[in-house]
Amino acid sequence: MTTPTFFPPTDNLYKFCALLGSIMVITSFYYPILYLNQVSSKIQTANLMIDKNEAIFNFSKDKMKTLLQILNNTIDYQNGKPRPKDKVEILYSNDDLKAMDNEITNLTKELKLSQAEKNYYVDQANFLSSFKWFVIVLMYLLAIVGIFLAGWGYRNWYNKIQIFQDREIKERLGKEQESKGTLM
User: Fold this and answer.
1) DSSP per-residue codes, 60-88
2) At what angle do helices 12-78 and 94-156 cross, to 10 degrees?
3) What is the distance between the alpha carbons of residues 74 and 12, in angstroms, rounded to a whole number?
4) Do the Cβ atoms of 15 and 157 come closer than 8 Å?
5) Residue 47 CB: number of other CB atoms within 10 A?
6) DSSP output for 111-176
7) Which of 143, 139, 151 is nearest to 24 (CA)?
8) Are 18 and 150 in contact (CB under 8 A)?
9) How does pLDDT run along the chain (184 residues), one tens digit per residue?
10) Maximum Cα–Cα distance for the chain, whole Å?
11) Which residue among 23, 78, 94, 166 is least crowded, i.e. fewest CB within 10 A of its CB?
12) CA gap 91, 115 in Å, rounded
């Protein structure tokens, strides 16, 4: 028996679709999960950097406030403002005051840099989080397409090609067994 001519002359299309669909299903779960683990690691790193920069920012801000208060109080007391009785008089030289002013300038610079770095890591974490959902949706979409493609390929491969090849093989084996049976 020969295969009908209205079917494709080869089963390569069906095999290709079946195997491609199977590969799509497998890779749709493996690679996105691997990628999501990497993205989660990057998000954790970004959150750690955010916390670190937040701590640096708060420490520098507090130190700057203290220095500014000391500097302002010293200037006020030198200009004749009466000192409260519970405060101890501490005298600073002009060099000490200039050093405090330079330290305030440096702390202001560090605060701005720390804030900019924090904003960068916040944006990066938000982007990665939103992109993570895109990858999850893509993973499920790829799996669904792969399941349908594999099912279509395997079904057509079997129903349109393999059934007829199996019948041919059975008939050939039957004829060979009959010929062997008659020869013995």
Assistant:
1) HHHHHHHHHHHHHHHHHHHTTPPPPTTSP
2) 170
3) 89
4) yes
5) 14
6) HHHHHHHHHHHHHHHHHHHHHHHHHHHHHHHHHHHHHHHHHHHHHHIIIIIIHHHHHHHHHHHHHH
7) 143
8) yes
9) 455 555 554 557 888 888 889 999 888 888 777 877 877 787 787 778 777 877 877 787 787 788 778 777 777 777 777 777 776 666 667 787 777 778 778 877 877 777 787 778 778 777 877 777 787 888 889 899 999 999 998 898 888 878 888 888 888 888 888 777 665 5
10) 133
11) 94
12) 34
Torsion of CA 55, 61, 63, 67, to 10 degrees: 170
- Identity of the residue numbered 138: L
| C-beta neighbour count of 142 within 10 angstroms | 17
Exposed, middle or buried, 48 (CB in 10 Å: 0-12/13-18/19+)? Answer: exposed
pLDDT one-digit tens code per residue, 41-56: 877 877 787 778 778 7
Q: How confident is the model at residue 144, as a pLDDT?
A: 93
The amino acid occupying position 108 is: T
